[in-house]
Design a protein that fits this description.
Blueprint lengths: L5 E13 L4 E15 L6 E10 L13 E6 L8 E4 H7 L8
Antiparallel strand pairs: 1-2, 1-4, 2-3, 4-5
């Protein structure tokens, strides 16, 4: 995560489960709430995320309005990594104090 130069907090607009044998994988759209680091002019994003294996059961879909952290390597609008805010805060000290 440290190599990601742009960090955005976004709210999930829509999520759907993708067929992915062995994994809980989703396709999502989200709208930008706040830029934490760097410059990102886009206001909405489409991206995919995989957070757990299906061996642990089916993980619920992210809900509308749920806050996620989107990481970017450049300002082209392509999400490099996406994590729920609570999980990202456990691993990224740059998010201290973000709610």
């Amino acid at each position: 995560m440290a190599a990601r130069t742009i960090i955005v907090i976004a709210a999930i607009e829509d999520a759907e489960r993708l067929s992915s044998v062995g994994w809980n994988r989703w396709s999502m759209t989200a709208r930008k709430l706040k830029t934490i680091r760097g410059a990102q002019s886009e206001k909405s994003y489409s991206f995919q995320a995989t957070l757990s294996s299906s061996g642990c059961g089916e993980t619920p879909l992210p809900t509308r309005g749920e806050r996620w952290v989107l990481y970017f390597s450049s300002s082209d609008g392509a999400v490099s990594e996406a994590l729920p805010l609570a999980l990202a805060k456990e691993h990224d000290p740059r998010l201290k104090g973000i709610r």
